[in-house]
């Protein structure tokens, strides 16, 4: 029996339901009593399927010495070999294979895959002569060999698809575990830090200690934003996008005003101007829109000029909600513009600043999840302006 190196080939042929019928048809067409599918390499001849009525002695997995077979030569020239009576044949009457195995009739057709790889042969043998002169015999066996090759190619594609599917399922399982573990393992110690800061604040009035506690609280707030950004990045890139739950919201304007107030409190040196005029009944995820605005505001504070105001406008226009944010300062470099809404784009473009460079990516993903867009323009005269648009249903009073 052959070793495990060829067990997959034997299994592949045995899994082709048509092979037993093909071998039976080969015997019927040729009148020969032994038919087989053989795997032929540069070192081995292995029977993968056998239909034996002469007790030749081969079973699936059985081997012949490669050099003792004609298939060794067929593997090199990849042409059929056919003779009906070896003892009178001008070439094969002196060939070692018929003499070794006592053969009179022989037919062997190469099995070649679509990529040109030689798999082996479809062959038939007998110890008595056979009439193999009819051209239809060779043509029919060639079609049988092609059918086997097609099935082998199909099997390979199916196996590759199964592997990809299994990998995708495993990746999905690991993705969910990663997001869950990331959220728990990062949020839990951060909550402990915040609670500790609150507790310390109630137990001291010393100014230096209060300043340190405030620094801890501000740092934990920034850390919280980073954690949420990382989680959203994981959901967006490893999952099906950042999830949103769109409902009819009557107080989006109030939500955006509160978001602006929180950023103002965290950045007392920044100057803000806002004009908010939004209707009730906006179809959106208010918390996600708040996050979008918070990320845009944070970006403007970090990269804009502190000497000029950051201008926020939010309004309805042609059945859309428009949120625009403009700041002055150094224009965004042209090299960075194509990367601006990609994750970690700041480091890729050689920019330096706080954060991981996820804020604009997440803002863009939130706009996309609302069937909207986030666009940017940046010039020295007009400043840098981000404009988010998304469709909304209105419930006018």
UniProtKB/TrEMBL annotation:
Keywords for this protein: Kinase, Phosphoprotein, Transferase, Two-component regulatory system
Cross-referenced Pfam families: GAF, HATPase_c, HisKA
CDD domains, A to Z: HisKA
Entry GO MF terms: kinase activity
Signal peptide (UniProt feature, chain positions): none
Keyword Metal-binding on entry: no
The enzyme's E.C. designation: 2.7.13.3
Superkingdom field: Bacteria
Transferase found in the keyword field: yes
Chain segments annotated as coiled-coil in the UniProt record: none
Cross-referenced InterPro entries: GAF (IPR003018), GAF-like_dom_sf (IPR029016), HATPase_C_sf (IPR036890), HATPase_dom (IPR003594), His_kinase_dom (IPR005467), HisK_dim/P_dom (IPR003661), HisK_dim/P_sf (IPR036097), Sensor_HK_Regulatory (IPR050736)
Enzyme type, top EC level: transferase
Reactions accelerated catalytically: ATP + protein L-histidine = ADP + protein N-phospho-L-histidine
SMART domains: GAF, HATPase_c, HisKA
Histidine kinase domain residues: 181-394
SUPFAM superfamilies, A to Z: ATPase domain of HSP90 chaperone/DNA topoisomerase II/histidine kinase (SSF55874), GAF domain-like (SSF55781), Homodimeric domain of signal transducing histidine kinase (SSF47384)
Family annotation (PANTHER family): HISTIDINE KINASE 1, TWO-COMPONENT HISTIDINE KINASE
The protein, known as: histidine kinase
Species the sequence originates in: Pseudomonas monsensis
């Amino acid at each position: 029996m052959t070793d495990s190196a060829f067990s997959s080939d034997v299994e592949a042929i045995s899994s082709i339901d048509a092979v037993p019928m093909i071998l039976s048809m080969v015997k019927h067409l040729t009148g020969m009593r032994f038919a087989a599918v053989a795997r032929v390499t540069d070192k081995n001849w292995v029977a993968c399927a056998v239909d034996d009525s002469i007790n030749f002695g081969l079973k699936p997995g059985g081997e012949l010495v490669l050099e003792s077979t004609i298939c060794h030569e067929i593997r090199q020239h990849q042409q059929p070999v056919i003779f009906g009576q070896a003892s009178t044949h001008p070439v094969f009457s002196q060939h070692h294979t018929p003499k070794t195995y006592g053969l009179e009739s022989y037919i062997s057709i190469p099995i070649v895959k679509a990529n040109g790889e030689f798999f082996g042969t479809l062959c038939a043998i007998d110890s008595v002569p056979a009439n193999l002169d009819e051209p239809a015999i060779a043509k029919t066996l060639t079609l049988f060999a092609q059918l086997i090759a097609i099935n082998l190619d199909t099997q390979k594609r199916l196996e590759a698809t199964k592997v990809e599917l299994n990998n995708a399922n495993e990746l999905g399982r690991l993705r969910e575990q990663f997001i869950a573990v990331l959220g728990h393992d990062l949020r839990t110690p951060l909550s402990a830090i915040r609670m500790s800061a609150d507790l310390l604040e109630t137990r001291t009035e010393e100014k230096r200690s209060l300043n340190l506690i405030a620094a801890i609280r501000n740092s934990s707030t920034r850390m919280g934003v980073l954690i949420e950004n990382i989680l959203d990045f994981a959901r967006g890139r490893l999952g099906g996008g950042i999830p949103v739950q769109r409902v009819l919201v009557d107080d989006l304007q109030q939500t955006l005003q509160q978001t602006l107030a929180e950023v103002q409190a965290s950045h007392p040196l920044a100057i803000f101007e806002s004009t908010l005029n939004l209707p009730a009944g906006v179809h959106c995820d208010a918390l996600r829109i708040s996050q979008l605005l918070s990320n845009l505001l944070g970006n403007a504070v970090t990269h804009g000029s502190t000497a000029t105001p950051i201008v926020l406008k939010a309004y309805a226009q042609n059945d859309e909600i428009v949120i625009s944010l403009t700041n002055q300062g150094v224009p965004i470099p042209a090299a960075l513009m194509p990367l601006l809404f990609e994750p970690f784009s700041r480091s890729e473009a050689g920019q330096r600043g706080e954060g991981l460079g996820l804020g604009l990516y997440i803002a863009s993903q939130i706009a996309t999840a609302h069937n909207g867009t986030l666009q940017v323009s940046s010039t020295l005269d007009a400043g840098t302006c981000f404009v988010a648009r998304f469709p909304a249903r209105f419930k006018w009073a």
